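Structure (tokenized):
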């Protein structure tokens, strides 16, 4: 049997077959393209410190969400370097040796002062000379140590180690300076004619000596 095909119907039939093939392929490629788009999507981050990453399941085409912790430790901050001048150690050496020298002068002042307290104008000449010379030496020593001490305290102000100890020592020595100045400039003149002034002169001087020795000892022990 011979079949005769209508050319118009043949063309329409081929077009229909092509259209069906395109629709069929689009239906297959649709899920694959959708899965590929999800798989290539950039990871998102929530408000907590975790990263949420989508992972595609190849056999089913479903998506699975995996939470990966990102709690890495923060970077450590380096300690800041503190620069101190070259003269710091030189002033410190002068300050220490002058401080050591005040101890025998304190002892001489205490011995001579007891003689003056008990006998007043009738005290021996060596006691009067020793007391005056000792007061002059202490004035010079405290001036040197005040300059070197305050200078070094300011030079090391950015050094946090033992800063409180250095500050307390500086304030204590400034108070001792003021007490010794008051004892020598005011109370020494009143002590020549008044027994109560001599007693007050002695008390203020001994308190100042004690505060100086204790503060210097604390610096020697703890300011390493």
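Design, position by position:
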């Amino acid at each position: 049997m011979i079949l005769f095909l209508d050319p118009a119907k043949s063309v329409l039939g081929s077009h229909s077959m092509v259209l069906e093939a395109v629709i069929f392929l689009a239906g297959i490629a649709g899920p694959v393209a959708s899965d590929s788009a999800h798989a290539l999507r950039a990871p998102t981050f929530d408000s907590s410190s975790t990263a949420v990453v989508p992972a595609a399941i190849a056999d089913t085409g479903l998506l699975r969400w995996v939470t990966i912790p990102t709690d890495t430790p923060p970077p450590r901050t380096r300690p800041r370097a503190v620069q101190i001048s070259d003269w710091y150690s030189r002033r410190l050496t002068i300050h220490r040796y002058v401080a050591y020298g005040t101890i025998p002068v304190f002892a001489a002042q205490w011995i001579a002062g007891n003689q003056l307290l008990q006998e007043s104008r009738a005290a021996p000449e060596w006691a009067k000379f020793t007391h005056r010379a000792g007061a002059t030496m202490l004035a010079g020593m405290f001036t040197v140590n005040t300059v070197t001490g305050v200078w070094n305290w300011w030079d090391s102000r950015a050094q946090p180690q033992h800063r409180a100890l250095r500050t307390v020592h500086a304030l204590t020595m400034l108070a001792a300076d003021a007490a010794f100045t008051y004892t020598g400039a005011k109370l020494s003149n009143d002590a020549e004619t008044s027994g109560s002034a001599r007693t007050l002169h002695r008390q203020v001087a001994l308190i100042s000596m004690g505060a100086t020795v204790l503060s210097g000892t604390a610096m020697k022990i703890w300011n390493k």
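Reviewer-requested clarification: The chain is about 70% helix and 5% strand. Residues 97-222 form one domain.
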